[in-house]
Amino acid sequence: MQYNGGSVIAMVGKDCVAIASDLRLGVQSLSISSNFEKIFPVTDRLYIGLPGLASDVTTLREQFRYRVNMYTIKEEREIEPQAFAQLVSSTLYEKRFGPYFIEPVIAGMQKTPSGSYAPFIAATDLIGCLNFAKDFVVAGTASEKLFGVAEGLWEPDLEAEDLFETISQTLLNAVDRDAFSGWGAIVHVM
């Protein structure tokens, strides 16, 4: 997980959700790029963050894109975040004996039975063990620092602007203390 580095965090707000990552691509302590994407849109209301080995990021991004397209064709509807989280989990579990070196973070807006949307976040480990949360999830080389800063800054029912500020400050303060993450950040708020 530390070969290429990188960190991702997702946070829940009041009727909104945010996902953020750093932009560094490195080979251990050597920085190669400061514009490496780790967050990818799955649908209009769903994003996945993929911190870990860069070649596995590219491989899984394409594999998830393929599987989501197949789901859309077969089911004739857009995939919901909960179903996508299960798809991610089963995809990673298929390779449990030779795992992808990726810790996916999923953030989206889940459709409720009443027809409205509720924030949804989840994360998995290397073999697809899902972790659902009501506040925030983290992954990557700065995860310990992200946990510490997020616990200090996150509050329930943050509005979208406050959520943006909280997740931005959390990510920037945590990756400043991690040699394998950094070089800027990108934040998506839904």
TrEMBL record:
<comment type="function">
    <text>Component of the proteasome, a multicatalytic proteinase complex which is characterized by its ability to cleave peptides with Arg, Phe, Tyr, Leu, and Glu adjacent to the leaving group at neutral or slightly basic pH. The proteasome has an ATP-dependent proteolytic activity.</text>
</comment>
<dbReference type="InterPro" id="IPR001353">
    <property type="entry name" value="Proteasome_sua/b"/>
</dbReference>
<comment type="subunit">
    <text>The 26S proteasome consists of a 20S proteasome core and two 19S regulatory subunits. The 20S proteasome core is composed of 28 subunits that are arranged in four stacked rings, resulting in a barrel-shaped structure. The two end rings are each formed by seven alpha subunits, and the two central rings are each formed by seven beta subunits. The catalytic chamber with the active sites is on the inside of the barrel.</text>
</comment>
<dbReference type="InterPro" id="IPR023333">
    <property type="entry name" value="Proteasome_suB-type"/>
</dbReference>
<keyword id="KW-0647">Proteasome</keyword>
<dbReference type="Pfam" id="PF00227">
    <property type="entry name" value="Proteasome"/>
</dbReference>
<dbReference type="InterPro" id="IPR033811">
    <property type="entry name" value="Proteasome_beta_3"/>
</dbReference>
<comment type="subunit">
    <text>Component of the proteasome complex.</text>
</comment>
<dbReference type="GO" id="GO:0005634">
    <property type="term" value="C:nucleus"/>
</dbReference>
<dbReference type="InterPro" id="IPR029055">
    <property type="entry name" value="Ntn_hydrolases_N"/>
</dbReference>
<dbReference type="GO" id="GO:0005737">
    <property type="term" value="C:cytoplasm"/>
</dbReference>
<dbReference type="GO" id="GO:0019774">
    <property type="term" value="C:proteasome core complex, beta-subunit complex"/>
</dbReference>
<keyword id="KW-0963">Cytoplasm</keyword>
<keyword id="KW-0539">Nucleus</keyword>
<comment type="similarity">
    <text>Belongs to the peptidase T1B family.</text>
</comment>
<dbReference type="InterPro" id="IPR016050">
    <property type="entry name" value="Proteasome_bsu_CS"/>
</dbReference>
<protein>
    <recommendedName>
        <fullName>Proteasome subunit beta</fullName>
    </recommendedName>
</protein>
<dbReference type="GO" id="GO:0043161">
    <property type="term" value="P:proteasome-mediated ubiquitin-dependent protein catabolic process"/>
</dbReference>
